[in-house]
Amino acid sequence: MTDPPVPYRVLDTRPETADTVTFRLAPAGRALPPFAPGQFAMLYAFGVGEAPVSVAGILPDSGLMHTVRAVGAVSRALHRLRSGDVVGVRGPFGTGWDLPLAAGDDLLVVAGGIGLAPLRPLVQAVLAAPQGYGRLNVLVGARSPDDLLYREELGGWALPYCGVTVDRAGAGWPGRVGLVTALLDQARFSPAETTAFICGPEVMIRATARELLHRGVLPQRILISLERNMHCATGHCGHCQLGPLLLCRDGPVVGYDRAEHLLTVREL
Amino acid sequence: MPSATTTRDPAPPACVLDRQGLDALVQALRARGRTVIGPTHRGGAIVLEELRSAAELPYGWGVELDGGHYRVVRREDEAAFAHSAGPQSWKNYLLPERVRQWTADRAPDGELTVRQERHPPASYAFLGVRPCDLRAIAIQDRVLLGGWHRDDAYQARRNGAFLIAVECTEPGATCFCVSMGTGPAAGPGYDIALTEVLDETGHRFLARAGTAEGAEVLAGLPQRDADAATRTAAAEAVESAAGRMGRSMPPVDLHTLMASSLEAERWDEVASRCLTCGNCTMACPTCFCTTTEDITDLTGDHAERWSRWESCYDLDFSHLPGGPVRQSGRSRYRQWLTHKLGTWWDQFGSSGCVGCGRCIVWCPVAIDITEEAHALHQEQLARRAAGEGTP
Ligand SMILES: Cc1cc2nc3c(=O)[nH]c(=O)nc-3n(C[C@H](O)[C@H](O)[C@H](O)COP(=O)(O)OP(=O)(O)OC[C@H]3O[C@@H](n4cnc5c(N)ncnc54)[C@H](O)[C@@H]3O)c2cc1C
Ligand code: SF4
Ligand code: SF4
């Protein structure tokens, strides 16, 4: 075991969807080293446990923003946080999105569900320095219109292309229905000079990456963020293995050139 | 420039200890405040326990080993170290089964105070570390200390451990250290290495130091200079052990064999026998996986974080909110074997298996890691012969 969690205070919370909240944290005392987009923290809900959670926002003064979907004990406890509460934070952990790799390229940011959370700080970083890149495309898929994250913010992003699609449309949804890959036809990118950043359910990641390969995007320019069980995030507990990779250390962001053959083996 | 006489050789030439000398070694280490842990015969097994004197060593006991089989047997001689790996390994001390990592207290205003567990400095001396286990310790060092993050508690226990290796002269029927390049001669990492010699000239131990502290300890013991006969007898005993390994691995690069065997049919066959009980992972001296437990006291304002050994054979090991990644027994056995022999190289730059044979002995259904590797190798050869193989 390495350093224990550092106390961070909840500044505010905001419901994102029925089962997802976004909260902002500020160090209660000592701050952790800075996080990069794509990296994650271990968030400790007092007495309940820890969960790996990506940084959804990197704030001034070492503040952090996280978006958490309630799926189990720890995430439900994080869901219940109120402003003023204190959580424990460890990190930063893992490989971030390799933005220097994408210099000059068109960018495809493809998110499924909660997968938009780790991609948000990446989009913000690119929007803050757009001259370094080609065209930025953001493609978002969600289960239903009610499950869309950062709705208002999405609308405010000035992008060459921002597409949203849902699996099941409710009444009054004017937008698209279907797989996120269907949005690729509208996106503006030259495949051979494109870097893609994908996060979402593994089936969605695989389908998107396959489609991009098919269209001529290089496998090492397809960066995906993977999820596995993690207990320590320091490379010592053994839970996050995906074949040769320890995903807390060699991931969560991995190039598709390294991951493709691993993702095709069932139950690896 | 320092003159040659001021640099002291940390490794003096070999010396010879007799049985009294061995006991003097135990007493000297105890006098230095160390808890001496070594093998002793208890409850039908050779177990690791605190030794108060060398008389507690299993003089005259050997072991009879096979897949799923372990029996302590009386020997005709009085050898102390004529047994191979037992049910425990040194990880029981260096990486204990359950460790408190930190405690947290919550004040009425929500303020959180987290305290890292300060482990009292353990000061062990391990007597009778077999060469394979010496390598196993080095492998766990790589995992827990060699990465970006260091396990400080492990580091403290490790720093405090004085290692006395005993070379193997009596390999078990399940041993294959020669295949793994870990024995029967002791590799680096020991403070003192012993080789047991038992012949018509008597029962004695050829001893040499690997560190300055080892040399200092040896220098204080009743001993005599190593004679040629003892040196030769020791070398021959170790060499003879190398020729008497009970098991062997196929003579191929196991790392690539594993990487090209992910879809082998053999996994179905072994899965039909494997109970996914996890015994092999508990007995293995390199298996390091842990899980965490978070507990609170009755007030609800004091919480603790513990880590405890966990096995990749547990269904919960690969738990994700959507269900475990490795549902089938097939995938869990595959995870274990391909990690040990294959992906360990990718992750930590070495094999995860040292050839101690514990997993074979303590498997209730006698699954044998060497037999499985041979079967995968045969299957690969057959695939290649059929022209559809992986390169
Ligand atoms: C790198 C990374 C980044 C992530 N980023 C985000 C994010 O930004 N937002 C988000 O919402 N989610 C994110 N996740 C997913 C999130 O970590 C999980 O949803 C969360 O860990 C679930 O924990 P839980 O306690 O709520 O659920 P559970 O499913 O109850 O799991 C909690 C923990 O307890 C253990 N556990 C549960 N049940 C058992 C059992 N029966 N036996 C033993 N152990 C058990 C599991 O091993 C797990 O680690 C991320 C995951 C990873 C790996
Ligand atoms: S895999 Fe088996 S033989 Fe190899 S080190 Fe572990 S217990 Fe020993
Ligand atoms: S190989 Fe043997 S010891 Fe290991 S999990 Fe299977 S049945 Fe248990």
Automatic annotation (TrEMBL), chain A:
SUPFAM superfamilies named among the record's database cross-references: Ferredoxin reductase-like, C-terminal NADP-linked domain (SSF52343), Riboflavin synthase domain-like (SSF63380)
One of the Pfam families matching this protein, by short name: DHODB_Fe-S_bind
Top-rank taxon, per record: Bacteria
InterPro entries xref list: Cyt_c3_hydrogenase_gsu, Dihydroorotate_DH_Fe-S-bd, FAD-bd_FR_type, Flavoprot_Pyr_Nucl_cyt_Rdtase, FNR_nucleotide-bd, OxRdtase_FAD/NAD-bd, PyrK_electron_transfer, Riboflavin_synthase-like_b-brl
FAD-binding FR-type domain boundaries: 3-99
Protein's UniProt name: FAD/NAD(P)-binding protein
Organism placement in taxonomy: Bacteria, Bacillati, Actinomycetota, Actinomycetes, Kitasatosporales
From TrEMBL, chain B:
Keywords assigned by UniProt, alphabetized: Iron, Iron-sulfur, Metal-binding
Presence of keyword Iron: yes
Keyword Transcription regulation on entry: no
Superkingdom of the organism of origin: Bacteria
Domain 4Fe-4S ferredoxin-type, chain residue ranges per copy: 263-294, 341-372
Name by which UniProt lists this protein: 4Fe-4S dicluster domain-containing protein
Organism name: Streptomyces orinoci (Streptoverticillium orinoci)
